[in-house]
Amino acid sequence: LNYCQLAWAPTTKENVQKLHILQKRFLRTVENVHSRFHTCELFLKYNVMPIMTMYDYRLSKLYKQEVKNGGTFLKQLANLQNNTPSHVTRYSEYWNVKTYRTTYGHQTLQNQLPRLLNKLNRKNVQLEIYTFKEIRKYFMSKWSCPIVTDNP
């Protein structure tokens, strides 16, 4: 699965959805439950990162590790540049995101990393301060189960 995630993660949502279905099928097989059983609790029980968030988690982890070690390789590879907006707006993004005409352009690291960092910045997730466990917890919580109460 890690190889598939590495090779397929920057791809269309349809391909990633196929991998997610395989993940769910595997968890159902391990627990020996029927095919319509909701897998949310199983992801949490086995501490399995859903493939939908795994790419962002790994990219965040890699970026944090590089910032911690003072490296610049990932920043140069992604051509990461601070955004200098021409107009003052309420929600200005910190990193400059280039626009592409094709979905292939959206799958590149030059697009994925600044978008991810801007999204995390909007949600007040500070990669430089968070520990690796807190980063994992954040990405796992994106798929947390809805709370079901017994009382209507």
Describe this structure in words.
This is Putative tick transposon. It comes from Amblyomma aureolatum. With 152 residues, this protein is mainly alpha-helical. It has one domain (2-141). Helix content is 55%, strand content 0%. The protein has 8 helices and no strands. It has helices at residues 2-8, 13-31, 40-45, 51-69, 73-77, 103-106, 109-122, 132-141. Helix 4 (51-69) runs antiparallel to helix 8. The chain is globular and about 55 Å long. Residues 147-152 have low confidence and may be disordered.
Keywords:
152 residues; mainly alpha; 55% helix
Write a concise synopsis of the structure shown.
By secondary structure, this protein is an all-alpha fold. It has helices at 2-8, 13-31, 40-45, 51-69, 73-77, 103-106, 109-122, 132-141. The protein is globular and about 55 Å long.
Shape: globular
Number of distinct beta strands: 0
Rg from Cα: 18 Å
Q: What ranges have pLDDT less than 50 throughout 5 or more consecutive residues?
A: 147-152
Q: Between the first and last Cα atoms, what is the distance in angstroms?
A: 40 Å
SSE arrangement, N to C: HHHHHHHH
Tell me the structural class. Answer: mainly alpha
Helix and strand topology:
Blueprint: H1 2-8, H2 13-31, H3 40-45, H4 51-69, H5 73-77, H6 103-106, H7 109-122, H8 132-141
Helix pairs in contact: 4-8
